[in-house]
Write a structure and sequence with these properties.
Elements (H helix, E strand, L loop, with lengths): L6 H7 L1 H12 E2 L2 E2 L1 H4 L11 E6 L1 H18 L2 E6 H4 L11 E6 L5 H12 L4 E5 L5 H5 L2 E4 L12 H21 L4 H19 L2 H14 L5 E6 L3 H16 L2 E6 L17 E4 L7 H20 L3 E6 L3 H6 L2 E5 L8 H18 L18
Helix pairs in contact: 2-8, 2-9, 4-8, 4-11, 8-9, 10-14, 11-14
């Protein structure tokens, strides 16, 4: 039986079940449950314009959703910091639908954003984990999650459930807008339904490997996390997890931006964490992957220490990185869910290396109810 000395580690391991429960809210077998999606029938404006407002990890879920909704549905999506949107009083002539995302459903900045959107006549949709929370009650439409109570302050299972719900939303809108054919929807839903068990069989391997990597990289003063496309959001999330869990500084960047300044920081004490997964069935994904391979080749010549997240069996990435964490491949927009979990584990073990109370990091609370 797996032992969990901290709530954060237990909640990381609970993610397959949490994702499965969230899927069960919205799927009937491997098709959309009409009753679950009925409240969402009128949330999207006629021009397909969406503004996402969120903070912290939830904003990173929103950054991923921006690309997923644009790629799969052809929507026009912007992402705002909830704290900025709530204080931006200029009228938006486009009148986009507003999607707010929160673990607690009570986050003050995000709740203020929701209320501002409602007061100015926007259709709103809330995604939150806590049943009966204010955002779920006040939004025009709601997508509750089923992650279960999350005790550790660093968000893990609530975050991957947010990604799950957002992916479901994208597939639902893609079906409604006919941007993906019926056979494609069936295939992607089947792949999503198989994801919890796929994650579960990789957890122990990721746990063992990231524990060793944390010991190896415990001397790092800063990490630079890099990702392209939808994976950039996971680079941002991995960096946030590192900061809030272990107090080790980290920043997330688009991989192509490394040489536009941040590369000056790269040294023995400033390693890179590079997301280098690929969907071989996607030409866009393969193009991004080739650019990442070239970057890793340059970084190897530069002498950088690099931890790469890559597809299982990818010998090209393994040969270029100092260390490589393998992910069983899935399609491009779904890769973000399994690839973020080793980043959660790495931050957890780095926290232990630095003697941090990982469940209760200093100066942070589970629900930010005062801005």
């Amino acid at each position: 039986m797996t032992e969990f000395p901290h709530a954060m580690l237990r909640e990381i391991y609970e993610q397959p079940d949490a994702i499965q429960r969230t899927l069960a809210l919205y799927l009937h077998g491997q098709s959309f449950d009409p009753k679950a999606f009925a409240p969402l029938a009128n949330w999207l404006n006629a021009r397909g314009e969406v503004l996402i407002a969120a903070s912290g990890s939830s904003r990173h879920a929103g950054l991923a959703a921006e690309i997923i909704l644009e790629d799969l549905c052809g929507l026009a999506v912007d992402v705002e910091y909830a704290s900025e949107y709530a204080t931006h009083t200029a009228a938006n002539p486009r009148n986009p639908s507003v999607l707010v995302i929160s673990q607690s459903g009570e986050t003050s900045d995000t709740l203020a954003a929701l209320r501002y959107a409602r007061s100015t006549g926007h259709q709103t949709l809330a995604i939150a984990n806590v049943p009966g929370s204010t955002m779920l009650r006040e939004a025009s439409a709601a997508m509750p999650l089923a992650a279960g109570k999350e005790l550790a302050i660093p968000a893990t299972k609530s975050f991957t459930c947010q990604l799950t719900a957002l992916y479901l939303l994208a597939l639902y809108e893609a079906q409604r807008l006919q941007t993906i054919d019926p056979a494609g929807i069936i295939r992607l839903l089947a792949e999503l339904a198989a994801l919890p068990s796929q994650i579960e069989r990789q957890l122990d391997r990721w746990r063992e490997q990231t524990a060793k990597l944390a010991a190896k990289y415990s001397d790092a003063t800063t990490f630079l996390y890099l990702g392209r496309g939808v994976h950039y959001a996971m680079a941002r999330e991995g960096a946030l997890k590192m900061k809030e869990s272990s107090y080790v500084h980290a920043e997330g960047y688009p991989a192509g931006e490394l040489k536009h300044g941040p590369n000056a920081l790269v040294s023995e004490q400033v390693p890179l964490v590079v997301i280098a997964t690929v969907d071989e069935a996607s030409s866009d994904s393969k193009d991004r992957y080739e650019k990442t391979v070239q970057l890793l080749d340059d970084m190897k010549k530069q002498g950088a220490r690099v931890i790469a997240i890559a597809n299982a069996g990818d010998q090209t990435i393994a040969a270029l990185a100092s260390d490589c964490i393998e992910i069983e491949p899935v399609s491009e927009h779904l890769l973000i869910i399994p690839e973020v979990i080793p980043l959660q584990l790495f931050s957890y073990f780095m926290a232990l290396e630095h003697g941090v109370d990982v469940d209760r990091p200093r100066n942070l609370s589970k629900a930010v109810i005062e801005a």
